[in-house]
Amino acid sequence: MFHGSTHRKHWILPNLNEVDKNRLKCIENYGEKLSKPGSDFLSIMEHKVICKHYEKILFNLCMQFQPSLPYSVLFTTFVYFKRIYLKTSVMEHRPRDMISVCLYMACKVEEYNISVDKFIMIYPEADRSRMTDIILKNEMGLMKLLNYHLIVHSPKRALEGFFIDIKTRFQNAENVDEFREISNQFLNAILFCDVVLLYAPSQIALAALYAASKELVRNYILHTLAPGEQGRSLFAKVEDIIKLVNNKIVCDIEHVGLIEDKLKKLPNPNSGKTKKRKMSTEDGDDEDMKRQKSSDS
């Protein structure tokens, strides 16, 4: 369950300042590896802009799958992408490569069974060989950046639980199913902000319901789910989530281009250090994933 998971223990931070402290530390670590001052390094804001840009590319990449990817794969992919840049810098591990590695790893962890050969079919034919190399070369490095904490708890499951609970215990909720579409749209929107690093999946799920009906969620929380002070505190967190989702970072294409040019000029201290994992019919790290799943359970 979530409360005993690595997700909660290691990857839910107290506030946005703590998130930015981690990012600043990654920038400082990059400078230490190069043994040079960081006047020409990317700033935290540039880091956010470039990550946001690649999150949009990642989302479009996920939409290439037919049939569509389950939301659990989508959510896990984005959480991986956000987590790794609390442990390393975009200057050290380039996001244009890591989005694909995160997506492939999420498919495996969420048991969306797909081989590398089939996975790379979402790319143009000219890029497939290169993407295979990138995925196999960085897969073990990704798990290390994640501290081998691979299990991610999705708010979609919590949302479905709230729908059932509202229908069962809460009065005047006959039309609650009409809120599903807006709630699901909100769950897509949270992929592009830091909410997933700050709040529990159940709190995010309540915010998704709130986006569809503020009155329903307020009454449900204060009168049924958690009456009293606990409920008021929970409702305040839901409102904070809404504010964070609405506070969007602007990714102007010209600004992104300038950051990309700056990024290309910066050296990569890990260049040539990673080793490509051998392809096999049975991926060698599957047992590690199973052990980690058992631990989180």
Describe the structure.
There is one protein chain. The chain is an all-alpha fold and 297 residues long. It folds into 2 domains: 2-151 and 249-278, Orthogonal Bundle (Cyclin A, domain 1), CATH 1.10.472.10; 155-246, Orthogonal Bundle (Cyclin A, domain 1), CATH 1.10.472. It is built from 14 helices and no strands. Helix 8 packs across helix 10 and helix 11 (214-225) runs antiparallel to helix 12 (229-246). Mean pLDDT is 88; it is low at 278-284.
Number of structural domains: 2
State mean pLDDT (0 to 100 scale).
88
Shape: globular
Main pleated-sheet profile: none
CATH class descriptor of the largest domain: Mainly Alpha
Characteristic terms for this protein:
297 residues; mainly alpha; Cyclin A, domain 1; 14 helices
Which secondary structure elements does this structure contain, and how are they paired or packed?
Elements: H1 6-11, H2 16-34, H3 44-62, H4 71-84, H5 95-109, H6 116-119, H7 128-145, H8 155-169, H9 180-189, H10 201-212, H11 214-225, H12 229-246, H13 253-264, H14 286-296
